[in-house]
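We were asked to recover a plausible sequence for a given structure. The inputs and outputs are reproduced exactly as logged, with field labels preserved.

PROBLEM: sequence recovery
POSITIONS: 546
GIVEN STRUCTURE:
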């Protein structure tokens, strides 16, 4: 556990370190003047070994009069950035709440610190807006130009006078720092370190086009901007805002990023992307203590709700922020999970489960429900296929597939599911995307194909299905017996702001089954069972019996 254990590094006389440092510099630059060890040089040697100590010492340079509020989370970030500098981490993703010194540490202090011992390093730093990247570029230059920095490392390098503007400056050892926006990334710009700090504008995070543009820039341009892919590194730092933001993409689709996730309130069980041996990716709830980073770091907190930085964000401040931000913004920007812990339309805690031995011997009806997609690309929607069975008021999910498929794979999936569940006489296929083509090609091979023209918005249809779930009439296979149950719960919990494929397939089946009618006759009287869904005769909408 980082920042919790006493240092095991041997104690070395600072005077010896200073002498070594000075002599090394003199040998590297024969014309350099030997600088006798003094207090500043000795401190410089020690700070070049410890980024966290450097951050604490450099703080006052750009924050005069403001006390530095330290925390274990800053130490954890620094430890992982040092591992990047050592070449131990090639891709590092940091998810951490707002106002936790993330941008200063990653975009200001780290580049200026690495230049103290590796001034030839070239940096490319980006954000969603040019003014944000420029801000940190100027702060970094302010640190380098300061008397504090020059007294300690002024003999290592100097900034070139003719290559020194606010968005780009170069030093005498051929190191360079370039700052720009993702949209302003020019051809030929690259670096040994590529820092992506807040790639999304949170005001646009729910715009699908805006999110896709960030991913497009990463895939088509930014991912290839390392000077040397074998030695360079990417570092991303951001708050979560959506299931399909930059973090969601690299965690689910690439899977080779070291992930340092630090929520405001401690949660031991969290949803994480799991990359399986067969190449597929799913979501599962994992004990974070069982998933240390490559450095052996795990969150040092132990109690649920324990705060990340109680000195800065006190319990009272946190409780005031929650209603102000709202459930989704708090969950994403503070907890680093885009979906609230309780869920959205489909609440995590209200699901019911069954084991295979508990299934009814006979169902009233079994149907397939399919939500098709147009094509198979990384940006395309997934094809979702469900098999639902109805028995009385309850609906049982017997089978689920949800993945990106091309047209041929979609056809085969319907055929395979029909073979597995011949009792599913009706096959519901949404009459959009590839749905009509699937029906036309399979009509003579697969009986019971039924086109469904969706009515109303996606959210309205999902809302109808969620009523059944809240009533306790939807049952999923127990996670102990089914590998995809936890993933499905997590995906549905993200509705209406996450992925829709499973929700569309679910809602389609529930609407087909119709409202849950559950009358019982006791002594000749009609009684409605509590927790059942019935249809309001006036509005035609479902409502829940309490």
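RECOVERED SEQUENCE:
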């Amino acid at each position: 556990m980082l920042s919790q254990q006493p240092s095991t590094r041997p104690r070395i006389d600072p005077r010896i370190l200073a002498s070594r440092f000075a002599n090394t510099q003199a040998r590297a630059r024969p014309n350099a003047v030997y600088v006798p060890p003094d207090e500043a040089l000795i401190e410089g040697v020690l700070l070049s070994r410890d980024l966290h100590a450097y951050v604490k010492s450099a703080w006052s340079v750009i924050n005069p009069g403001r006390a530095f509020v330290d925390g274990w989370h800053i130490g954890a970030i620094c430890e992982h950035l040092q591992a990047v500098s050592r070449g131990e981490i090639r891709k590092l993703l940091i998810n951490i709440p707002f106002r936790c010194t993330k941008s200063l540490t990653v975009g200001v202090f780290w580049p200026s610190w690495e230049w103290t011992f590796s001034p030839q390093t070239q940096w490319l730093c980006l954000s969603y807006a040019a003014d944000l990247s420029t801000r940190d570029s100027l702060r970094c230059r302010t640190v380098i130009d300061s008397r504090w920095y020059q007294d300690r490392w002024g003999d290592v390098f100097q900034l070139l006078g003719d290559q020194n503007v606010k968005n780009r400056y170069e030093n005498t050892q051929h190191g360079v720092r370039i700052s720009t926006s993702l949209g302003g990334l020019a051809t030929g710009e690259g670096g040994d370190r590529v820092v992506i700090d807040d790639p999304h504008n949170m005001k646009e995070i729910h715009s699908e086009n805006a999110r896709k543009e960030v991913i497009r820039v990463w895939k088509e341009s930014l991912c290839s901007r390392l000077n040397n892919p074998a030695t360079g590194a990417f570092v991303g730092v951001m708050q979560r805002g959506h299931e399909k933001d930059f973090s969601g993409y690299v965690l689910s689709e690439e899977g080779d990023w070291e992930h340092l996730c630090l929520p405001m309130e401690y949660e031991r069980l969290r949803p994480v992307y799991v990359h399986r041996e067969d190449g597929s990716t799913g979501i599962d709830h994992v004990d974070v203590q069982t998933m240390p980073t490559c450095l052996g770091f795990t969150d040092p907190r132990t109690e649920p709700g324990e705060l990340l930085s109680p000195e800065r964000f006190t319990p009272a401040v946190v409780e005031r922020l929650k209603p102000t931000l709202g459930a989704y913004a708090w969950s994403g920007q503070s907890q680093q999970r885009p979906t609230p812990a309780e869920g959205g339309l489909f609440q995590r805690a209200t699901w019911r489960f069954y084991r295979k031995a508990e299934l009814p011997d006979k169902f009233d009806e079994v149907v397939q429900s399919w939500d098709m997609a147009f094509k198979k690309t990384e940006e395309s929607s997934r094809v979702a296929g469900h098999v639902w069975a109805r028995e009385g008021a309850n609906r049982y999910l017997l089978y689920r597939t949800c993945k990106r498929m091309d047209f041929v794979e979609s056809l085969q999936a319907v055929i395979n599911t029909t073979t597995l569940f011949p009792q599913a006489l009706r096959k519901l296929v949404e009459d959009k995307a590839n749905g009509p083509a699937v029906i036309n090609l399979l009509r003579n091979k697969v009986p019971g194909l039924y086109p469904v023209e969706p009515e109303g918005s996606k959210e309205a249809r999902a809302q109808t299905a969620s009523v059944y779930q809240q009533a306790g009439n939807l049952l999923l296979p127990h996670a102990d017996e089914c590998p995809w149950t936890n993933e499905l719960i997590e995906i549905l919990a993200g509705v209406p702001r996450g992925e829709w494929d499973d929700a569309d397939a679910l809602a389609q089946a529930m609407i087909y089954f119709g409202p849950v009618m559950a009358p019982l006759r006791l002594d000749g009287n009609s009684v409605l069972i509590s927790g059942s869904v019935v249809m309001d005769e006036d509005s035609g909408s479902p409502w829940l019996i309490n």
